[in-house]
Amino acid sequence: MIANLIVGGLAAGCLYAMVGIAIVVVLNITDIANFAQGEMAMVTTFFAYWLLNSVGLTWWQAVPIAILFGLVQGVIIQQVVIRPLIGSPVLSAIIATLGLNIVLNSVAGLIWGHQTYTFPSPFAFSAPFMIGSVPVPVDAVVSIMAGLAIVVAMTWFLRFTWIGLGLRAASQNPTVARMMGVSISRSSAIAWGLGGLIGGIAGILVAPSLFLDTNLMSALLIKAFAGGVLGGLHSMIGVFLGCLALGVAENLVGAYVSPAFGEAITFIIIIAVLIVRPEGVFGRVKVRKV
Amino acid sequence: MLEINNLNVRYGAVEALRDVSIKVGSGNLVAILGANGAGKSTLLRAISGIVGTASGSIALLGSAIGGLSPEEIVRRGVAHVPEGRGIFPDLTVKENLMIGAYARRGRDLTADYRKVMQMFPPIERRERQFGYTLSGGEQQMLAIGRALMAAPRLLLADELSLGLAPIIVKQVFAKLDEVRKTGITVLVVEQNARLAMKFADYLYVLKYGRVVMQGSREEFERSTELVDAYLGV
């Protein structure tokens, strides 16, 4: 019983973590908390649904195309909405993402209406894996593997590629990064593209269990922020572990305390962390030498 | 190497630089002196393309670089050691050096990297440490090394002595002299006139964004009182 709850919590946590990582990548590189991250992922998921149902592609064809769409969507949004705001106060851009959140939601509503759709998953009806005596649903395994793969791939990309090095430099000191030849607007576009891509994967993986409608990602977005605050919004690994912890805590509290309390734990965690350790469990207070 | 004519830079209504004209000959070490807020950093930032210019021209080896992107300017051979060193705190020493070669990415940099490391033994020992763990002097050495990784023809150095102990400052300037001896032209900005006069071939004094005095080292040495008056010391 408890093992099942933990596995389920980890799978949910991995989905939060994907949205969390998408947010953190954009936040660290551009200083913008992207409140439209969830709605961007929702639009990507609807696009995948359209490819599946109207174009008639198989899941394995539709999903890579949709993920690519997520990337392109991120870059386009950065170019149209965020780029003109480079150089103005960060708050303007954050407000712009709040507006974008509403616009994307409304546009999706206009196109697809406000009913719910069943989003297919090739893993939904497979027999569960057995790890010892614990049955693990295949879709949980897929979520966990995808979450781990994203963390590993992103860490590799940021650590061992030139573009990754430029992104990290831009996040730490944009002016000096420019002196080195790093383009800030290009870094910002890459960050938004990556955010769109990773968020899209989360949307596609979560849609089969939540059903697809225009509010698909709203709960996930808040949980991703909560997990991020818990782990520390400046570290990708911190966000990942924070989201996993949140997923497991939700499941355990829901089962042993009260199902109604499972949701509330998110907000209790946000508030508690902000009071006790605002930089997050894995965060580190920035030391600046003059 | 570098020729600036009638350069004007504005921040909103503030005129940071007014009709500044400066020449830096190949292989020289030229110093710009001035008090706080005289426009020294702005001048270097304008050369690097970090701040836009209102009017005037900046030419590197005879071709105009005003209005180019910072990336293009680095590629043409201008490297910048920024004020306050600008070490990336959460990059390792190695990464801090490599980012200096960002505009040359894709090329084989191992030889250049080894050469820069050998030039700065104190940071060679700290290759894997994060930038924020370095002392001020080490950070300044790293910032110079980072600029050298761009394989520059012209090195811009902004206020190297800022916040460093006198003995460290001497070491840093000795390194800068070494850099110049490898054939790299150097343009430094400095508040410490005595220090700059020890190393520079030619000097300028900026006040309120204007060039108010210029001359060779010998000329400056003969008129130290005038220099002091301009700098307000």
H/I helix tally of chain A: 11
The first-level CATH class name of chain A: Mainly Alpha
How many E strands of chain A?
2
Distance between the termini of chain A: 54 Å
The named CATH superfamily of chain B: P-loop containing nucleotide triphosphate hydrolases
Assign the CATH architecture of chain A.
Orthogonal Bundle
The CATH architecture classification of chain B is 3-Layer(aba) Sandwich
In N-to-C order, the SSE pattern of chain A is HHHHEEHHHHHHH
Measured by DSSP, the beta-strand proportion of chain A falls in under 5%
The largest beta-sheet of chain A arranges its strands as 1-2
Tertiary shape of chain B: globular
> How many strands, which pairing sense, and closed or not: the largest β-sheet of chain B?
6 strands, mixed
Number of domains of chain A: 1
Largest sheet of chain A: 2 strands, antiparallel
Which structural class do the helices and strands of chain B define? alpha/beta
So how many helices of chain B?
10
The gross shape of chain A turns out to be globular
Assembly category: heterodimer
Note down, in words, how this protein is organized.
- The complex is a heterodimer of chains A (290) and B (233).
- By secondary structure, chain A is mainly α.
- Helix content of chain A is 74%, strand content 2%.
- Chain A has helices at residues 2-30, 37-55, 59-82, 90-112, 138-160, 162-172, 174-179, 184-210, 218-231, 236-256, 259-276, and strands at 129-131, 134-136.
- In chain A, strand 1 (129-131) and strand 2 (134-136) form a beta hairpin.
- The longest helix of chain A is centred in the first third of the chain and has 29 residues, at 2-30.
- The model of chain A has no long low-confidence stretch (mean pLDDT 90).
- With 233 residues, chain B is α/β, with parallel strands linked by helices.
- Chain B has one domain: Rossmann fold (3-Layer(aba) Sandwich), CATH 3.40.50.300.
- Chain B has helices at 40-48, 70-75, 93-99, 110-119, 121-124, 136-148, 166-181, 193-199, 217-222, 224-231, and strands at 2-11, 14-24, 29-33, 55-60, 63-64, 78-81, 154-158, 185-190, 202-207, 210-216.
- Chain B has a 6-stranded mixed sheet with strand order 6-7-8-3-9-10, with helices on both faces. In chain B, strands 2-1-4-5 form a 4-stranded antiparallel sheet, with helices on one face.
- In chain B, a hairpin with a 2-residue loop joins strand 4 (55-60) and strand 5.
- In chain B, helix 6 runs parallel beside helix 7 (166-181).
- Chain B starts with a strand and ends with a helix.
- The model of chain B has no long low-confidence stretch (mean pLDDT 91).
- The interface between A and B is medium-sized, with 21 and 29 residues.
